[in-house]
Specification:
alpha/beta; Rossmann fold; 2 domains; six-stranded parallel sheet
Length: about 325
């Protein structure tokens, strides 16, 4: 096995590539757990009859720079999708970033050009397309300010210029710095206490990972946030030693029930609110499921994820959006 195969294999589960075979990646902490991009991209590669594949690359933070350095040297690498939690920290390893990426402060797409890597943000494009489903919103609540969260904030402000915005993020300093960069006036940053007291909200957007179905390993313990909504402080959530859903629910039952009550209170106070969650796995997060149960209109992240994946594929592979949009469906 060549040095290239050894180096790449540690990131993509020891997949064997032929000499000079082209490939793309989706880079994140655990994209192999359910990312859609490999299925979508490989579907198009197959239709084009190209000997090219996309692989999920599960990478620990300490190994991210090593992977990027390797990819810059590998002439067979075409580009990559970037997912949680590396959309922001990967910026410092790139040679160029698009205007949107610099404003948002994150990238979700890498394009290889020579021995350099360029960064782009297609989450913004995906959110803009999804927001077409919502009309005439006066009060909007946006939860989260991560990589996709910043793209959602920028897109929503552009779509609803005259609305009043409420923003929530666990890291208030990070959120405040970003909002100052956007120079908007009609907004308020809130905490958990105020969150449950809000009334007459027209649209609530969840951009956090709370509700996503994936096991997270922290300090040798496993956590899964599929059982929660963003309306409860999860500092007290308890981890377990193995990936056991029943055991996790049992250990966190009080917090799970408290979360449900907090969210029901918000739903009651905002009876005309619509809900958009950028999460697509599961298709109905707890955030959307409970809202729909109470009669609210909801939209998940499938369309956003699809549209941004199409845009990313076009950037990496030099294709036109309209053609790839049809092929991926």
């Amino acid at each position: 096995m060549t040095s290239r195969k050894n180096n790449l294999g540690q990131f993509i589960s020891n997949k064997i590539l032929k000499k000079n075979e082209k490939y793309s990646l989706i880079i994140g902490e655990t994209p192999s757990a359910g990312a859609r991009s490999p299925k979508l991209w490989n579907k198009v590669y197959k239709k084009f009859k190209k000997e090219t594949k996309m692989f999920p690359a599960d990478v620990q933070k300490k190994n991210l720079y090593s992977l990027i350095r390797f990819l810059k040297r590998d002439n067979s690498f075409l580009g990559s999708a970037i997912t949680t939690p590396y959309k922001e920290i990967i910026l410092k390893y790139l040679n160029f970033c698009s205007v949107e990426s610099r404003i948002i402060g994150s990238v979700n797409t890498l394009k290889k050009r020579g021995n350099k890597l360029e960064g782009y943000n297609t989450d913004f494009y995906g959110v803009i397309n999804s927001l077409k489903y919502f009309k005439n919103k006066k009060k909007i609540l946006i939860l989260g300010c991560g990589g996709a969260g910043k793209a959602a904030i920028l897109a929503t402000i552009k779509k609803f210029r005259n609305s009043f915005f409420y923003f929530f993020n666990r890291d208030k300093k990070k959120l405040n710095l970003f909002l100052k960069k956007l120079k908007i006036k009609n907004y308020k940053i809130i905490d958990y206490k105020i969150l449950s007291q809000l009334e007459n909200i027209d649209l609530t957007i969840n951009t956090t990972s709370i509700g996503f179905d994936s096991w997270i390993l922290r300090n040798k313990k496993f956590y899964n946030l599929i059982f929660f909504t963003p309306f409860t402080n999860l500092k007290k959530v308890k981890g377990i030693k193995s990936k056991n859903r029943k055991q996790f629910i049992k250990k966190n039952n009080i917090l799970i029930q408290r979360d449900k009550l907090n969210y029901f209170k918000f739903l009651k106070q905002n009876s005309n609110c619509e809900f958009f969650d950028i999460i697509y796995n599961p298709h109905m997060s707890k955030f959307l499921k409970l809202a729909k149960l109470k009669g609210h209109n909801t939209l998940n992240g499938l369309k956003m994820n699809f549209d941004q994946a199409v845009k990313a594929f076009c950037i990496v592979n030099n294709n036109k959006f309209e053609k790839i949009n049809i092929l991926m469906r």
